[in-house]
Amino acid sequence: MGYKPPYSITDYMVDSVSLISEKIGEMHVKTELASKPQLRKNSRISSIHSSLAIEANSLSLGQVRDVINGHSVIGPQKEIQEVKNAYAAYEMIGKLDPYSVDDMLEAHGMMTRLTVKESGAFRSGGEGVFDENGKCIFMAPPALQVPGLVSDLFDWMKESSELNPLIISSVFHYELVFIHPFSDGNGRMARLWQTVILSRWKEIFQFVPIENQIRTRQAEYYKAIAECNDEGNSNRFIEFMLKMMNQALDELQRSAKREDGVFSLYVKRLLSAMDFDVPYTANEILEKLNLKSKETLRKNYLSPALENGLIRMTEPDRSTSRNQRYVKE
Question: Can you give the residue range of the structural domain that contains 302?
Fold first, then answer.
């Protein structure tokens, strides 16, 4: 065997792989994603919005949804094009070969169409990561080494059939970010290709919004990468990604329950009155639902929706704050 990325299997990884596998086994039966096209689409839109938001795309979840649905959106044209590109790339997941470098280059071409000069090709120049003061904190390998490094990484994947794909995909994600093979779009491609790898193993992963979990813990995501760079292995990052997958499966299960109608009519009415990604005050929700009692709103609507992760508070540590808002997840 040739190149082997530096990592070791920890007890946390073993336990996490076991837990994730159990959840997949349960959800494969319970969610019946084939019969829930809206759930599949919402999960994909959430993944795309989150992956782009990590890279500073400013469009809201609602705007991303509108772009994908073909509606006019006022916003930076490059960011609108990024949404169109990401949607085209994610729609190809089931057709992409996770072990093909050519397929990855094709996906990068879709992901960066009309927005990046070196689209669908490895970078020709140097790449580094800089802090807020402009200081270089990480320098990627020279461009001449990129094709060989990527080829070695793909060869390792092909030769690692004994490893669980949850581990393989996480190692690949970190290694691709480290190699930084593209002039732009490295993070987006690393997250997309992890999904490609996982989807070849279990189709359900096409619609598991892992990117959404990463976005909510973005600082931890970058910290894990930095720690791995310092330590010379990807252990910390693998553990982080397994944690994100666990939480993403929980999120998908909550969404499936909502579609199955296990929540009360009160909660359904609340969710239908709220738009995604829009913060509402309690008074605004009272008005939308044509209610007069704040106690009724709290007991029958807000509390059960909060408990099931269907909405969130903008100030969770100060539930009675005058500035409190509620956002549909």
Answer: 264-328
